[in-house]
Amino acid sequence: MKILIYGINYAPELTGIGKYTGEMAAFFAAAGDEVEVITAPPYYPRWEVAEAYRGGYRKETLEGVTVLRCPLYVPTEVTGVRRILHEFSFVLSSLRYWIPRYFRPYDMILCISPPFHLPYVALPHRWLHGTPVVNHIQDLQVDAARDLGIIRQPWLLRILESAERWLLHSVSGVSTISTGMQHKVVKKGLKLDDTILFPNWVDKELIYPVAKAASARRDWGFEDEDCIVLYAGNLGEKQGLESILHVAQRLRDMPRLTFVIIGEGGAKDRLQAEAEAMQLTNVIFKPLQPLDRLAATLAAADVHLVLQKRAAADLVMPSKLTNILAVGGHALVTAEAGTTLYDLVQTHRLGTLVEPENVDALECGLREILSGARAQDAAGAEEFASAKLDKENILADFRLLLTLNTKQHNSWNSLHR
Questions:
Q1: Mean pLDDT across 390-411
Q2: How many other C-beta atoms can be found within 10 angstroms of the C-beta atom of residue 215?
Q3: What are the residue ranges spanned by the domains of the chain?
């Protein structure tokens, strides 16, 4: 196939949407597809363009994929309004690459959301050439902006919700990464049969079980007797990460316990300042670790924190959980009963569940795990990752779906049925 992918995040970003889009595009190219990507320079999760990519437009080839980079505005402090400006600056700058491509044939166009509005740019290609345009939703951005209070202006939310609803009905197909997100999309007027579940995955060549002795513990100065509670991922506002500091303060009575926070993001400076003000000697911050050390990094932990605010339920699916499961780690997950994340963890014994935004529950869950009382909660983690999250299987199935769609000239919906 000849595939065009349109998304604001892409490799070599190590976390988040860019990592998955980069791996997907490379998989398609390795399978023989001709793949082009229109994207931005790497800036996430630091919210700062990588030094090697500063400047204007550039074209490069990564793992057989033609990557077209567009300059954009990257705010130093992320607010609702500044994020809108950031995303629209990417749309405007990307038109330089899009305009000539409206006159070139493609078998498939994949738009990666967020930003939710990218399919607006791709739809003219469908109208001109009948090219299928698939909207792959990693986060339900408009819902999150509303429910997390990122955007508070009712008139602006109404405009965004109407624009999103129109797009969902105008593209050829919609895919999402969880069943909870599928049901959220259904509430926007689509039928469940009109959506495809395309979950995130684990690369077994990079993420696999590692013995504690071979983990990163010694590199960080820890002994075997020490206990590590790890949070690794985006340090943003969706997770409610201040609860880590509060529970660390309560667990000062455990002298060999350390909370390690790894990552970058808009909330990092604030969290570091709060930890210093609270004189938390049992909390340390580390930068993102190299990808080839990710398995060793995750294996260093006795407990992994997977935190989300209550309002984020079924709006995003924490991608960090897939890697934790692949190393056989014990995840402490904040999720409400009835959400997709809660049901998934409980049904398959993937970790310990506690109520979101409840420091008492978080403290109780941690103490029980560290005492050994909740060991069976995560008994199914490694098996689930092996059976359900294999990168090759997930991407091969999705590519087959796209290939059949283009060859049979069926609609996305009729093919799925």
A1: 82
A2: 21
A3: 2-201+390-416, 212-388
Lookup result for tokens 């996430």: 44
Residue 148 three-state SS: coil
Question: What is the CATH number assigned to the segment(s) 2-201+390-416?
Answer: 3.40.50.2000
Which pTM was predicted? Answer: 0.90
CA distance 381 to 169: 37
* Domain boundaries 212-388, CATH class: alpha beta
The per-residue DSSP string of 246-307 comes to HHHHHTTT-TTEEEEEE---TTHHHHHHHHHHTT-TTEEEEPPPPGGGHHHHHHT-SEEEE-
CA 236 to each of CA 25, 44, 78, 240: distance values in angstroms, whole numbers, following the listed order = 26, 11, 10, 8
Strand 58-62 to strand 65-69: parallel, antiparallel, or no bridges (unpaired)?
A: antiparallel
219-247: pLDDT as tens digits: 999 998 999 999 998 887 666 789 999 99
d(CA 357, CA 312): 11
* DSSP letter for each residue of 340-380: HHHHHHHHHT-EEEE-TT-HHHHHHHHHHHHTTTTGGGGTT
Residue 408 burial (CB count, 10 A): 10
Smallest CA-to-CA distance from 185 within 125, 135, 253, 124 is with: 135
Give me 306's structure tokens: 């997977």
**Could you check whether 2-201+390-416 and 212-388 share the same CATH topology?**
yes
Distances (CA, A) of 87 to 73, 118, 146, 170, 289: 8, 9, 17, 21, 27
* Pairwise CA distance, residues 330 & 227, whole Å: 13
pLDDT digits (tens, 9 = 90+) for 141-196: 999 888 878 788 899 899 999 999 999 999 999 999 988 899 899 999 998 888 99
- Is residue 274 within 8 A of residue 245, CB to CB? The reply is yes
Query: Which backbone phi and psi does 379 adopt, to 5 degrees?
Result: -65, -25
What letter would DSSP give residue 390? B
